[in-house]
Amino acid sequence: MSFIAVMCVESSDGDGILDKWENKLGLDANNPSDALKYSSEGKEYLNIERYING
Ligand SMILES: [Ca+2]
After folding, report:
1. What's the gap in Å between 29 CA and the centre of ligand 1?
2. pLDDT tens per residue across span 1-54
3. Which residue range forms the structural domain that includes residue 36?
4. How far is the CA of 35 from the centre of ligand 1 (A)?
5. CA of 9 to the centre of ligand 1 (A)
6. CA 24–ligand 1 middle distance (angstroms)
């Protein structure tokens, strides 16, 4: 299974961030808009960027 497919399967809201990572980053696993908001830990990166970059 490809990485993209895994993201689609395990992301409840379809924003590309796995549910367990949403929890880890303090996001809402049922809110697809938080992936494109700036991280609470800094204004330089979006949450989706923090997730992708680990
Ligand atoms: Ca989300």
Report:
1. 4
2. 566 555 456 899 999 999 999 999 899 999 999 999 998 877 899 999 999 987
3. 3-52
4. 5
5. 14
6. 11
Q: Which helix (H) or strand (E) holds 5?
A: helix 3-10
Residue 24 near residue 5 (C-beta atoms within 8 A): no
Residue 38 C-alpha to ligand 1 middle, in angstroms? Answer: 12
Looking at residue 7, its pLDDT comes to 47
The structural domain count of the chain equals 1
CB contact at 8 A, 3 and 11: no
The token duo for 50 is 């923090």
Going from the Cα of 1 to the center of ligand 1, the distance in angstroms, rounded, reads 22
pTM of the model: 0.71
